[in-house]
Amino acid sequence: MMQTGSDSQPTCAVAVDLELFTAADTGAEIGCSPTSVKRISVEIKLPAITTKSGIHLYTRPMMEKIRAEIQRRELERLRR
Fold first, then answer.
1. pLDDT tens-place string over residues 61-76
2. Please, which of 1, 18, 41, 57 could form a disulfide with 49 given CB 3.0 to 4.6 Å?
3. How many domains does the chain have?
4. Domain-embedded: residue 61
5. Domain span at 59
6. Phi, then psi, of 41 in degrees rounded to 5
7. Single pTM value for the model
8. Where are the alpha helices (DSSP H) in 1-59?
9. Rounded CA separation 22/57 (Å)
10. What is the percentage of the chain residues whose pLDDT exceeds 70?
11. Would 49 be classed as within a structural domain?
12. What CA–CA distance (Å, rounded) separates 78 from 5?
């Protein structure tokens, strides 16, 4: 949202503080490989933030969705 300051210059009204993690960081946090993180995010249609150089970045909520999917798959595997 843009607002106009007292000098009629546009100012940003919303500041965003985003914590981003690489696929390696995410994998280390949830106990799987970076390749698994990328694969699962594609399979559950969870788009990573991708830098110009191709690095995949994930937010904490995205990381938790990947963790939940890994746990769901593990439970499903154990039930067989």
1. 999 999 999 999 999 9
2. 57
3. 1
4. yes
5. 19-79
6. -60, -35
7. 0.74
8. 23-30, 34-43
9. 5
10. 79
11. yes
12. 59
